[in-house]
Amino acid sequence: MFEKVNPAHPDKVADRIAGALVDLAYTKEENPKVAVEALIGHGLCTIIGEISAIITRKEVKKIVERITGKKFKIILRLVPQDKHLAKNQEDKIRCGDNGIFKGVPVTKEQHKLTDIAYGIYSKYKSDGKYILDGNRLIICQSNAKTEDLKKDYPNATINPLGDWTGGTDVDTGAVNRKLGSDMGDAVTGGGLCLSGETEYLGEDLKWHRIDQYKYGKVGQWNNGHLEFVEPIKYISNQNDCFIHFRNNTKLSMKITPYHQVLIKTSKGNLIKKSADEVARKIYSPSCNSGSLLHSFLYKNAVTNKYHDDDDLRLQIAFCADGSVLEKGVTWNGRIRVKKEHKKERLRHLLKNKVYKETKDKGYSVFWVNVPYASKSLYDCCKDQDLFVVYHEMFKWDGDEDRRIYRTTNKEDADFAQFVIHSQGRAAGITVDDRVGTKKNNGYIYKSVCYTVTEYKSNTTALRNSEKNEVKVEYCKGVENSYCFEVPSHNIVVRHDNKVYITGNCGKDISKADVTLNIYAHLKAQETGKVFKLCCAIGDDTVDGKPYSEIVEIARTYINKIGGFEKFSEWGLIKPNINN
Hints:
Distance between the termini: 22 Å
Structural class: alpha+beta
Number of strands: 34
Shape: elongated
Mean pLDDT: 87
Largest sheet: 4 strands, mixed
Low-confidence stretches: 506-511
């Protein structure tokens, strides 16, 4: 399966504008430092970038009007490259950013669809996107009659929602958003993907499988704090290998080898490393690869659903040990407890309220009117002060001293785990499927027990030791993978009931990124094999070659095809006419 868009697609229009500005910089300096982002749509074009060459607003306006054929209001912000980054390149050409790259031989299917897209674009110079899945061809071409396209492609699915106009008056375009259609099966840049059973945290404070995402805000990790944002992009891909990291406590993550793992170093700095690199170093006795993060801080917008904190605490007690009196006249609930510390706690919480206490074979039964006749911890507490919930819930279900919370309700277990993490701590959930087993007194269990355990540490050391055995398993076989791109570039996810913080699929644009993209692609076509490499900011050699030599290889390729704007039109997988 492969997707391709044509040069008139709004995202490709943005790419072409950025490429044209890079070309212009090269006419003014031999080796300019350029990174340009463009956003265009609905009469407005915003361009922001770092550039060493002098480019005027008049020159930018001319490029935008030439490529789009329209007049746009232009918001322009071009500034010099950061002096610290510029210093990195003073004595020799070095990598300008971190990156992971995989060049893959272009398939017959990818060549075929690119030629189809080029053929349609030669006739209709307007927004279009196309998919080829085996023998199934899907054509979405603006400003074209379906019956005319049917004559050329009688077996294709054409404009399934009807004829359309498209373009930047209908859709917004942004640089690099159609990178996948340029790269085929290749890989560049950042976080890449997670396994489908991985869960993301929704704004409802519930966990949802990432492969079932439809819409809505997702949880991002931003300098230690949890925030809910609309993802910039939702990514789905196929991979033939995943790496599963796990230990006996709080770690379980199944990710692709190129996924960027967020790591806290021994000095407290945050860095990212590919999963493959982390896996290779875990078994090294002399290497400290840092620690994986599990926690966050979350300050929710508290609503005054309860009269005071004691009302909230009473509700938590009721969720744990109470029963709803469906037909209660005087009381709407009762709480039946045996442990003395629970009895004393209830008397304290009820001291200013009307209630009745009765005895029943060693138990105390408290007849009460609770704010909500509900047993759901999630429903009763999700929009309340989580600090109060955190400190109260252990007193009722589980063991306060051992920091254990137990429930037969999976939703409440998930919420209790979230509450613990929201306070900058970490917890895992274990499942005891005891249904049908018999107690010593003859009672037969009818429900599953979920145990939420708070851990003493909120990080996991990425190394093996007697106290911390991290197991690494390479899982082979084609499997779908998924990810979000979010503004902070770090997301909050869960796998096998273990929460962790990791990088997302955001791809940073840099000259190094473009150079090694091209180099990896060319090597793969030359050898007919997958070619992998990575770089770190400041590297002066990559793949055993001086980085300046690789830059010249990329420069030759760009010059051959006619510049960065031409490169942006079709990307690395080009129509045969241009080969």
